[in-house]
């Protein structure tokens, strides 16, 4: 199975115009902030799974933080029955974003200053936004470089194949290859998603066809390599 996680770029935001979350469509209100089920079938993850001839499960969510991506991916891996058949593909997001726990739920926040948070957290959120300085962002970049690298090592130790990239790399690749974002957003249409999937497949096939063992080469991080340097180049966006 191909398991995909990430933010709006992996959830297919705006592939269906104006739709970022399933709940933006009255037919899928009960799905909440999950990816729209029709948009998911036009994302890079779906096309990637089709090309690899594997099953597909997408847990990406628009406006997601790396905290949420890491938490939900670890939970999925822990519950996976056939880990040797699992392939994880993640598009990591801006390190500035965070996940805050609220009761039994989780809230995703960005430094945009426009996020909707419970009234009891409004002052905390305002103060947090003011504290998102360039120095703080740099600290978060370093922190997430370490966390992502550590998670990669965990997957390697479990023999789980995976491919990591940063969404800034994804955006840059598509723009360089002539794709335009949708309207005023930084999202892309289904054709662009297909192009990114096609870009990833050779990296994945190269490793799968060599019958991987527990070695660092199990990890595929395009361009940015083990250090995940893409985080250092990223400037926060709020999608």
Question: Can you describe what's shown?
Answer:
- The chain is α/β, with parallel strands linked by helices and 239 residues long.
- It has nine helices and seven strands; from the N terminus they run E-H-H-H-E-H-E-E-E-H-H-E-H-H-E-H.
- The strands form two sheets. Strands 2-1-3-6-7 form a five-stranded parallel sheet, sandwiched between helices. A two-stranded antiparallel ribbon has the order 4-5.
- Helix 3 (44-52) packs parallel to helix 8 (190-208).
- The longest helix has 24 residues, at 134-157.
- The protein is globular, with a radius of gyration of 17 Å.
- The protein starts with a strand and ends in a 6-residue tail after the last helix.
- 38% of the residues are buried.
- Mean pLDDT is 87; it is low at 208-239.
- For the termini, the CA-CA separation is 28 Å
Shape: globular
Q: Supply Rg.
A: 17 Å
Main sheet properties: 5 strands, parallel
Number of strands: 7
Helix content range: 40-55%
Number of helices: 9
The percent range for strand residues is 5-15%
* Low-confidence residue ranges: 208-239
Average predicted confidence as pLDDT: 87
Strand order, main sheet: write it out.
2-1-3-6-7
Order of helices and strands: EHHHEHEEEHHEHHEH
SS content category? alpha/beta
What is the strand and helix layout of this fold?
Blueprint: E1 2-6, H1 8-11, H2 37-40, H3 44-52, E2 56-58, H4 66-79, E3 87-92, E4 98-102, E5 105-109, H5 122-130, H6 134-157, E6 161-166, H7 167-176, H8 190-208, E7 219-221, H9 230-233
Parallel strand pairs: 1-2, 1-3, 3-6, 6-7
Antiparallel strand pairs: 4-5
């Amino acid at each position: 199975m191909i398991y995909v996680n990430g933010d709006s770029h992996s959830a297919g935001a705006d592939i269906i115009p104006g739709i970022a979350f399933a709940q933006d469509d009255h037919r899928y209100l009960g799905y909440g902030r999950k990816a729209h089920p029709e948009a998911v079938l036009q994302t890079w993850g779906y096309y990637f799974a089709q090309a690899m001839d594997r099953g597909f499960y997408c847990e990406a969510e628009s406006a997601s933080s790396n905290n949420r991506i890491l938490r939900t991916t670890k939970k999925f891996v822990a519950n996976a029955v056939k880990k040797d058949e699992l392939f994880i593909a993640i598009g990591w997001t801006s390190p500035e974003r965070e996940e805050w726990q609220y009761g039994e739920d989780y809230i995703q926040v960005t430094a945009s200053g426009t996020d909707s948070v419970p009234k009891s957290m409004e002052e905390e959120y305002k103060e947090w936004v003011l504290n998102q300085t360039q120095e703080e962002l740099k600290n978060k970049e370093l922190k997430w470089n370490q966390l992502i690298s550590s998670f990669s090592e965990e997957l390697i130790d479990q023999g789980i194949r995976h491919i990591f990239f940063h969404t800034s790399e994804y955006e840059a690749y598509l723009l360089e290859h002539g794709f335009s974002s949708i309207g005023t957003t930084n999202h892309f249409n289904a054709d662009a998603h297909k192009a990114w999937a096609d870009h990833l497949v050779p990296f994945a096939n190269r490793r799968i066809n060599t019958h991987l063992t527990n070695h660092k080469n199990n990890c595929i991080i395009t361009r940015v390599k083990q250090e995940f340097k893409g985080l250092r180049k990223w400037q926060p966006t709020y999608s």
